Amino acid sequence: MTSPIVRFAPSPTGRIHIGNARVALFNYLFSATNHGRFILRFDDTDFARSTEEFARAIEVDLAWLGIVPHETFRQSQRVALYDAAAAKLREAGRLYPCYETPEELEKRRKMQQARGLPPVYDRAALKLTGADRERLEAEGRHPHWRFKLEPGVVEWSDLIRGPSHIDCAALSDPVLIREDGSFLYTLPSVADDIDMKITHVIRGEDHVTNTAVQLQLFAALAPQAPPPVFAHHNLLIGASGEGLSKRTGSLSLASLRDEGYEALAVAALATLTGSSDNVHAVRSLGDLARSFDLAHVSRNPARFDPDDLSTLTHRTLALLEFEDVRERLAALDVVGHKAEPLWRAARGNIWTFDDILKWRRVVDGEIDAVREDPAFLAEAAALLPEEPWDENTWAAWTGDLKTATGRKGKTLFHPLRLALTGEQSGPELAALLPLIGRAKALARLAG
């Protein structure tokens, strides 16, 4: 395979949700696996709803996932390209003006359905004469422009769905340009794909029908160039089977980030859900890319349960090495010679990254020590070794305590944990004790 060029083309009309992230991740991981290029392309030709604020928010969300595009484009800055494409289609007789109002079109659809016919546009506008069009425009009507589909079946080999086809007789000629002259999604997308030499279009299966129209557009605009290879993946649905929507904020990346979930956990769950691969924690997007394969994607809907993110975040944090999180720890002021051993000790016992602050407080701050058995704790304090301490100090100390008191198991260890950390459970005390230090340990044991 030649190095692929892929794109993620969100509309900056809201915050992206986990379903949008799935599309971005599929494209990014596919390009990374095959040493290709990933383009971020904002579909912002809907000038009324697109905002720069949402565009910036999408870039922030992608960066949080670890996705860094090779290039970024805005379709609002490329209108000349789309005007040229529209002119070429007009010259070829493939783009024609229509003057029906939405109400008139809806009335026709209902009449067709009542007669048992498919609600396909009847191409009445093709029968208009020049005089007819002048009269309609004199009445104040402005045309919208439809792409004239050629009859027949459009076939393609889908990287996920396999051999696929759409009979264009079942489709209406799509509107490419609105009455106000603005472009709908389809024409700018194809014109950009041609101009940017996109090799693979990886997207949700809700776009399958669009593929027939777009393949005809590719053939009309660039007959000598091969069209992209298409791959349509299953869609993420919510835990209760509901669809996801930017407009309702369903599982937005911003909300998942605010709830403390790890970006790598979100990426792994969004990517591996609905595939033959088991959902598992990863240390980097590179690790995820090495196991990513479009052939493993299922044809069934992929149910995304955010409750799974908590466990997966916990497992992800346990995988991360100190170098992976050094800067994040510094941002929380977890620095100095204790930072690395603290992370190694605590990473398997935290459920969000900020939980590390609790264990920093245990080793460096003040806690509410729990002294269940003061007499035993006094004896433990008397046997506490002198420093320096290392990872063997805990075993040596508790071994002496066991000999002196006859205690073992929970009756030996649990009172010590409560007094030293104030917690019922947590990291291995063999790792924590040298970080707490003798002075704090004595104070917590003695009360």
From TrEMBL:
PROSITE patterns cross-referenced by the UniProt entry: AA_TRNA_LIGASE_I
Aminoacyl-tRNA synthetase class I anticodon-binding domain location: 373-446
Localization terms from the record: Cytoplasm
Any one GO cellular component localisation term in the record: cytoplasm
Superkingdom classification of source: Bacteria
Reactions this protein catalyses: tRNA(Glu) + L-glutamate + ATP = L-glutamyl-tRNA(Glu) + AMP + diphosphate
Keywords: Aminoacyl-tRNA synthetase, ATP-binding, Cytoplasm, Ligase, Nucleotide-binding, Protein biosynthesis
Class in the EC hierarchy, top level: ligase
Chain location of the short sequence motif 'KMSKS' region per the record: 243-247
Molecular functions per Gene Ontology: ATP binding; glutamate-tRNA ligase activity; tRNA binding
Domain Glutamyl/glutaminyl-tRNA synthetase class Ib catalytic: 6-310
Spans traversing the lipid bilayer: none
Residue ranges of the motif 'HIGH' region: 10-20
UniProt keyword Nucleotide-binding present: yes
Binding annotation for ATP: 246
Pfam families: Anticodon_2, tRNA-synt_1c
InterPro entries for the chain: aa-tRNA-synth_I_cd-bd, aa-tRNA-synth_I_codon-bd_sub2, aa-tRNA-synth_I_CS, aa_tRNA-synth_I_cd-bd_sf, Glu-tRNA-ligase_bac/mito, Glu/Gln-tRNA-synth, Glu/Gln-tRNA-synth_Ib_cat-dom, GluQ/Sye
BP terms from Gene Ontology: glutamyl-tRNA aminoacylation
PANTHER family reported in the protein's UniProt record: GLUTAMATE--TRNA LIGASE, GLUTAMATE--TRNA LIGASE, MITOCHONDRIAL-RELATED
Protein family membership: Belongs to the class-I aminoacyl-tRNA synthetase family. Glutamate--tRNA ligase type 1 subfamily.
Assembly and binders: Monomer.
Biological role stated in the UniProt entry: Catalyzes the attachment of glutamate to tRNA(Glu) in a two-step reaction: glutamate is first activated by ATP to form Glu-AMP and then transferred to the acceptor end of tRNA(Glu).
Name assigned to this protein: Glutamate--tRNA ligase
Organism of origin: Methylocystis parvus
